[in-house]
Structures are given as structure tokens and as C-alpha cells.
Amino acid sequence: MDWENKYRPRTFSDVRGQPHAVKQLSGLIRRGQRRRHLLLSGAVGSGKTSLIRLFAQGLNCVAPESDGSPCGSCEFCIEPARYFIEWDTAGRGGSKDDILRVVGQNALAVGRSKVRVVFFDECHALTGDAQDAILKSIEEAGPGLPFFFATAGPKTLGPA
Question: DSSP letters of 79-138?
Fold first, then answer.
């Protein structure tokens, strides 16, 4: 196991230095608000990806903890890849074709999970056409397909 995954927080109480984000995300889970699209921005290494992974697990968890953290033992906590699709935009591509392929492959029925999350990490690397395609996909997405985004450069998003 690589270093960042070995030490990645497994519960919201494990997260350090992000009390406002933890409070907001855990509150959404406790209140059952699963239809949110999220954009997290912050410095490199601030925990954006960790928070999104925790939040996605908590959304589908059968028995979340009192703070919204995933239980870590249900089928959705053990196999998150079944409902959590992470696309590293900077490393794998941020063109319109790349994005339409990812969204198209994952816009299928949610199945047994409550939601099927599509997460674009480093979303500042999306091209303008790809951003437009994602906005259209968000408008057309059903309630079980939230889109999550993380970036260290939020000012680069939007029209050029």
C-alpha cells in the first residue's frame, strides 16, 4: 500500500485541519442530503481528495457512524470502486471526449447503492469544451449521480 493511502483518514474524526469542511460534509450525510454536486478547492495536500472519498463512502454506507463517517464494514465501504469513479483529470486527460466517455460509462443505473459518484480530481485541467459538457451532464443527471470536483486552482475554472 502506498504512503498516501496507508495514512489517509478513514473517518471524519481522523481528518485534521479541515473542521468546517468536515462539519458540512458530515452534516449532509446525517441529514440524508445525497443529491449534492460538490467543488472542493484548497492548497495541494490539504485533504480535498480524502474528504471526497470519505463523503462518497458515507453516502452509500448502510450504517454510517453518528458523525456521518462510513462504518468501514458494509459491502459499500469494503468495495467503494463499485459506486465511486475517480478521474484524475491532469493525469488521464481533460478533453471533452475524455469527459463524455467517463460520464457516459457511469451514468448507468445506480444499482444497489444509493448513489454512483463521479469525481474529477484536478478539475482545473479540464478544457473549456469539457467544462461545458460536464455542466450539461449535471443538468441531465438523475438524483443518484452526483458529480464531485477537487482543484487547487479554482480561478482557472469557467470561461477563458
Answer: -GGGTEEEEEHHHH--SHHHHHHHHHHH-S--TTSS--EEEEETGGG--HHHHHHHHHHH
How long is the chain?
Answer: 160
Cα separation values, 52 from 43, 85, 86, 100, 151, Å: 15, 11, 10, 21, 12
- Taking only the tens place, the pLDDT of each residue in 36-84 is 889 999 988 889 999 999 999 999 899 999 999 999 999 989 988 888 8
Amino acid type, 37 = H
Q: Are 131 and 158 in contact (CB under 8 A)?
A: yes
Q: Is 67 helix (H, G, I), strand (E, B) or coil?
A: coil
Q: For residue 5, which phi and psi values (nearest 5 degrees)?
A: -80, -30
Question: Within 10 Å of residue 13's Cβ, how many Cβ atoms?
Answer: 12
